[in-house]
Design a protein that fits this description.
globular, mainly alpha, single chain
Amino acid sequence: MARRPDHNWHLPWDQYVATLKPHELPTLPGSPATPDLSGWLRVQYALTGVLVALVGSLGSAAVIANLSNLQGELGVTSTESAWLPVVFVMTNACMNLILFKFRQQYGLRLFTQICLTAFVVTCAAHLVVDNYESTLFVRAVAGMAAAGLSSLGFLYMIQAFPAAHRLKGLVIGIGLSSFATPIARLIMPDLLQLDGWRAFYTFELGMALLAWAAVQVLRLPPSERLKLFEPLDFLTFALFAPGVALLAAVLGLGRIVWWTEAAWIGWALAGSILLLTAALMIEYDRRNPLINVRWLTGPDILRLFGAILLIRITLSEQTSGAVGFLSIVGLGPDQLHGLFLVIFVAMVAGMAVSALTLNLTKLNKPIAIALGLIAVGALMDSQATILTRPAQLYVSQALIAFASAMFVGPALLIGVGKVLQQGARNIISFIVMFSLLQNLGGLAGSALVGTIQVVREKFHSNQLSADITSLDPQVVLRMHQLSGAYASTLTDPALLNAEGPILLARQVTQQANILAYNDVFLIIAGIAGLGCAWVTVVHLRPRIRARRQARHNARLTAAPTPDAATVAAAAD
């Protein structure tokens, strides 16, 4: 029978846990209990989980989606504006290294209040800062606060499902923050028309206050508190966090300042390797490591992390590739509403299918399917031309969006299953690496797409320009046609004739960029296809071995056993 959710939450943990049924006990240390609730309360927890998760990720998605607009409002260069999304990742990527233990030691209530209060203050700060340096600092603080909100939204979503369907809640909860990207693309053009970025910051603050009020009214059940922090934890964090931040800066800015042109890229990468190596060396010999290096380097875990990183990199086909291509052909954010509405619907469908078809014995299967769908979608996009518009990308981008929502839950469940096999002591190691791969994988994917696109654009520009000469009558005619469009505004014949080569060069550059994006899509399709084959082999290998063993055992069983007389005769 359903009970009031908080009728005995004031009890000490030892007394409270005695009132719980076996299926209501927390699965992991630091996680809340999952008491039986009424249907209406479960709906409230689900809505609160969606709200909290989206609030934590919407700001970052909005900055990424409208970076050029924010660059103009702040009056900075493209390199300076590129730091705004990167600094968010720098502070967000490894906060779980500390936050998970903080939640276990000091309880969910304090964890919730600190995270949401920090985020509300951050959103309010956006309304009063009006320069680049302050905005950069606020985005860094937002990254730290958002790390806690993603976990909080996940925990609220778990409460919304009964024990029989709790794993479905896990699949849905872990993927909620990914919906921020299409939502930001859909709402930002209208908000920017109202009052620029101030309108969005006001909207974000309102959402944050609404989430803060919701979690004050609807609390999470209690969790067990354990004294876990050790002095070496803080030393590890002091080395690991700057190392990850430097690596994020390299991945986020390398393609913009170019890898071999800016000396600080090399120094930052060297510093990152040095700091991360020092942190892992400290953790390697600890009795209670914050990051269990031995466990993380096991073959099963490495294969899982490889698959996650591979998918995150190939998903950049959508987040960086398709959007970049459409900007090259002259489309702005307000012209992409239809495309991102399709992407949003496809992501909802992907999450629903992932949750409803969840099979704990075949968790590699959704990952292989996701890679296959990405390969098909990218291959379809590789045939794009200058006439391609969002409507021609609906099917391919829907496949990729479906795949992006389909793989996250099963990948998390594989890792959690590996953790629980050893008594949950490696949960922090897994959560930290899972978060890192999600964050740095996205940056690595964008870096890969941007780098290949630049290199291939230079190649195609040289190839196209090599055949253009002023001695060709068709080239001369084309330049005359292009300059003729300005005949009514330019009366000077010399200036009018000079416009022809400029406009022709612009068209050549545009065509070279389109060919370069086609190359990017084709490469991503190949990578995703190979990844699909690899994961499929990993998935089928145990089954093939089991069948071979079963056939071998069957042959041994079917073989006739000689009787004593036959053995004696053979001996004579």
